[in-house]
Every structure is written in C-alpha cells, then in structure tokens.
Amino acid sequence: MTKAATADKTAPEISASLPLMLRMFKTYVRPRLKTIAFAMVLMMISAAMTGIMAKLMEPVIDKVFADKDAAMLWPVALGVLAVFTLRGAANYGQNVLMNMLGQRIVSDMQQDLFAHLVYADLAFLQKEYSGQLISRFLSDINTIRMAAVQSLTGIGKNLFTVVFLIIVMFMQDWKLAASSLFVFPAAAWSVSLLGKKLRKVSASTQVSMGDFSSALGQAFQGARHIKSYGMEEHEKLRVFSYINRVCKLMNRSYRFSAIATPVGEVLSGVAIVTIIVYGGHEVITGGSTAGKLFSFITAFLLAFEPMKRLAQLNNSMQMGLAGMERLFSLLDMKPEITDKPGAKDLALKDSTVRFDDVVFAYPDGTLALNGLSFTAPTGKTVALVGESGAGKSTILNLIPRFYDVSEGAVLVDGQDVRDVTMRSLRANMALVSQEVAIFTDTLRENIAYGRPDATEEEIIAAAKLAAAHDFIMEQPQGYDTRVGEQGVKLSGGQRQRISIARAMLRNAPILLLDEATSALDANSERLVQSAIDRLQKGRTTIVVAHRLSTIMDADIIYVMSQGRVVESGSHDALLKSGGAYARLYGTLMRETA
What secondary structure does DSSP assign to 324-336, as a single string? Predict the structure, then answer.
C-alpha cells in the first residue's frame, strides 16, 4: 500500500472533527480571546456598514435620481462616503488582527511541536523521514492556520454581513426576500458534500509534500555522490515523480473546490431571475419603488459572496482538520525513554561502566546484543572490536540511554542508568561519533555546543588539544567563521576535529568514541590521538575503532561477535592466544600494509 493510500485510509472521519476543533480552540485560540473579540467587533462594524450601504441605494435611486431632490444630494453622498470610510477602517483593523492571530497560532504550534520532538526517542527520530517532520512544521501547520483564520473570519465577518444584508432585504420586501433566499441553503448543502473528499485529498497531499521534501533534501545533501555515480537522470526522474504526485493531488482538490462555483452561479441566476420578475412586476404595478428594488438587489448581490464563503468554509475546515489530525497525533506521541518517577541525579564516585547480561533488540526486531557482559574500569581505556554488526555502536547508544536494554542492566558506578535522571547521566559523558554533527553556526559556537558558558580561553585550549586551532585561524573570520549547513565549508577531517574539540571542552569523566579518528589523515590522527591520550587519563574511555593505534594502546580489548564478548585482554595477550583477535589483527595489518 502506498503512503498516499495509507493517508486516505487513515484520514480522520467526520465524527472526529469536533474533538479536534475543541482541542484546537482550547490550546491555541482561547488564550487570545480578547484579540478575537476586538476583531469580531470590527467585523460587526464592517458588516453593519455593508448593510447600510445597501439600504442607502434606496434614497440614491428614489430621492436623487427619480425625484431629483437637490437637498438630498450632499447628505446621501456624504453618508455613502462615511459608510465606505468606516467599513475600510474596520476591514483594515480586523485583517491585521486576524493575520497576526494566525501567525501567532503558527508560531505556538511550531514551538510546541519542536519542543516535543527535541525530546522524542532517538529510535523515532531515526525512523521518520526528515522531510515528513519538516512538512508538519510548514505545510500542515500553514493549512491549519488558514483554516483557523478563515473559520473565525467566516463566523465573524461573513456571517454578520449576511445577517445585516438579509435584514435589509426583509425591510425592503419580506415576500421577495423569503422567495429568493432558497439559494443560500441550497448552495451550502452542495458545497458541504465535497468536504469529506477534500479532507482525504488534503491528507494525501500533506504526506506527498513530506515525501517531496525528503527527496529534495537527499538530492541536495548527496549531490557529490549523485554526480560521482552519474545518477543525475535517475534523481531527476525520482524527484519528478514526487512533483507529479503532488500536482495530481492538488489538481484533484482544485476540481472539488471549483465545483461550488458553477453550482452557486446557477442558483444565484435563478434567484436573480425571481427578483427581476417579481420585483419588476411590483414596481410596474406601483406596489414598490425602483429604489427599494435596487436596494434589495444590491443587498442580495452583496450577501451572496459572503454566503458562498460561508458554504466553502467547510472545505477549508476539512483540509485544516487533516493537518490537525497529523499534528496532534505527533504531539500525543509519548517518548518511551523517560526519567522514572523519583529518579535521582547520578552520584558519581568513580566512572566504572558495566554491562550485566544485556539483551537488546531494535524496534524492528533485530537482535543486536545477546547476553552481553563486560566492565570498563575507572580511568581505563576499553576498545570494542569485531566484525560489522557485532553490536559495538549499539553499546555506545545504551550507555547514555539513547535506547533502553530489553533485558539485563547497564550500570555506571553501580547505578542502573534507568534509575538516574538522563540529564545527570549525559552530563557526565562526551560522545564523538563517526557521524559528525556540525551546526550552521560559527566555529566558536560549534566547539562550545554543550557548554555555552565556556570562556574564550577554554574554547581555544580545547581547539588546540584537538589540533583544530591552526586551521581555524586560517579561516576568514577565525573562530567567528560560519561553517555553512552541515559544516560544508570544512573538510571531513576538520569537521571531526571540531567534534573532538567539543568533547574535550565538555571534560566529562566518561568518553564514548565511535570511530573518532576515522576521517583524519595520518598527521592529524597523530595530533588528535595524542590529545585524546592526555584527555583519557583518569577517565573511563570506551572506544569503537578499527585503527591499530587505538586498539594496541587500549588497557582492555573486548572482541565481539553476534552481540557477545568472545575474547578479552590486552593486545599482547590476545595476540599470543591466537584466537579471534589475532585473526582480526592480521586482517587489519594486511589492509593497512
């Protein structure tokens, strides 16, 4: 089943509309009721002026044009000018207030969504496409904003306008008003039939927009690989398919929305014919005046547009409800990795890390660790080696509780990591991964990430230890140089050294190094490894690496296979035993020869 089909199937039914709208109102609209009330007053003034404008057509026709009463010319003209001026001022005020309200709702939703996602489980964030998440922030929330503003404006300005104009119509001729108003409920009924279809199409469109966003992000981020493999045509066709999908869905929504226009035009034509025939007969026979008839027609024509917008409001609401369902489903998602009730801060006397018969499987069922036990003693460097998929990087994810174990326990200084607060646990750790995270900011801010209170001297000292200071000073603005998205202005080795400087500045008692020197050339590796050696003194370091220098210098080497430790010891002892480590070491020697 395609994603679009899934979206169609899971689009919220009409019965779910009321709870969604109530939640939207309570969370984002009710806190700004004063602003809404003021805007509603302005809408009422604008609506009243529209009704008065239609009523003024009677003296314009009867007194000025028909009776040629010169005394009425200026009063009527000035009255029309005053009505237009007041209506213009009221429209300006309510438009500004409603657009500001809409933007405030967007900002509140985006803040709430990001505040929720930034604490979401790593497993969820790694599973979701970034484009889909970005689509929630942009496409979905903007659709909700338009639905909210249009709903409030429709209930306010359009409804008030219709009410005032209908009053004018009944004042002029109640029989004619009663016979012509059939068009309004008929138009509303025809438009409401399209709501459910529009809601489903909107849900599919929002999913497809997320897929499109993901495809664009992948294409731009992977531009180097796309060109090196000659896959430009493939990527062009892939992105084109998403564009065409969005285009088809948007065209469907346009067709559904546009049906209301010809239906409304036909119904209004029938109503106008009724007014002309009946009203004309009344004027001819002396039962009414031309001014009253013209005033009635003006009121009817002025009422039809806001009435049509009221009828189309259902379409906008259905599209907004599809966005609300996607937004609130994400906000309602509870993280599984949380502090347990009564969790205490990590009380660290020593930094021993111990895995006690740990079993761990990823959400998709893949078993990564199977009864793993090992100890990383305080102040020692432990190296984890083994074939790809043995579970080495999984270990580094379990220590700071990016994931929780399925069975067994991970202990830091004898304390189960699930029993302490995550903030205190992670505050005692520094992670340097082979996946370098460089933020679109200055080099200074990237190094100080995690320690924003660090002094200039501390930042420079960390950069020097990571062999980063020299190349930083060669940048156009030194430490104030902005590095671009994902550090695009830096080489791979430079990005890694910034990441290592960040970990050094954190100065945590537990270091987690996942291929920390993998992107460095031989000279930079020697400089960084020397700095890491100094930093490791008195600290517990757990290293996942393939570099021989890192493996040979480790105090304890744990050889892993299929999620278990199969050998452990020092480099020399393991070589003498002639087991799995000796074979792995021989392979590495041949690769580096």
Answer: HHHHHHHHTPPPS
If asked whether residues 165 and 235 sit together in one domain, one would say: yes
pLDDT band (50, 70, 90) for residue 7: very low
Are residues 364 and 317 part of one domain? no
Is the sign of the CA dihedral 516, 520, 523, 527 positive or negative?
Answer: negative
What gap in Å lies between CA 415 and CA 428, rounded to an integer? Answer: 13
Classify the C-alpha dihedral 29-31-34-35 as positive or negative: negative
Predicted TM-score (pTM) of this structure: 0.71
Verify that 275 and 416 share a domain, yes or no: no
In a domain, 348, yes or no: no
Of 352, 367, 348, the residue nearest 405 (C-alpha): 367
Calpha distance 199→420 (Å, rounded)? 45
Q: Read off the pLDDT of each residue in 583-588 and give the average, rounded to a whole number.
A: 80
Residues 351, 430 contacting (CB under 8 angstroms): no
Shared domain check, 319 and 407: no
Q: Are residues 458 and 522 in the same domain?
A: yes
From residue 479, give the alpha-carbon distance in Å to each of 408, 440, 441, 444: 45, 14, 10, 5
586 in the same domain as 440: yes
Shortest CA distance to 244 belongs to which of 214, 201, 196, 205?
A: 205
User: Any idea what the CATH number is for the domain that residue 371 is in?
Assistant: 3.40.50.300
Asked if residue 138 is part of any domain, the answer here is: yes
- Regarding whether 260 and 189 lie in a shared domain, the answer is yes
* Domain stop point among 297, 331, 365: 331
More reliable by pLDDT, 262 or 90: 90
**Three-state DSSP class for 462?**
helix
Q: Helices 33-59 and 141-153 sit at what angle, rounded to 10 degrees? A: 50
Q: Cα-atom radius of gyration of the chain, to the nearest Å? A: 35
Q: Residue 557: beta bridge partners?
A: 383, 569
Q: What is the 3-state secondary structure (H, E, C) of 7-18?
A: HHHHCCCHHHHH
Query: Do both 289 and 363 map to the same domain?
Result: no
Percent helix, strand and coil across the chain, each to the nearest 5: 65, 10, 20
- State the residue range of the domain holding 439: 353-592
User: How sure is the predictor about 432, in pLDDT bands with cuts at 50, 70 and 90?
Assistant: confident
| DSSP 8-state code for residue 486 | G
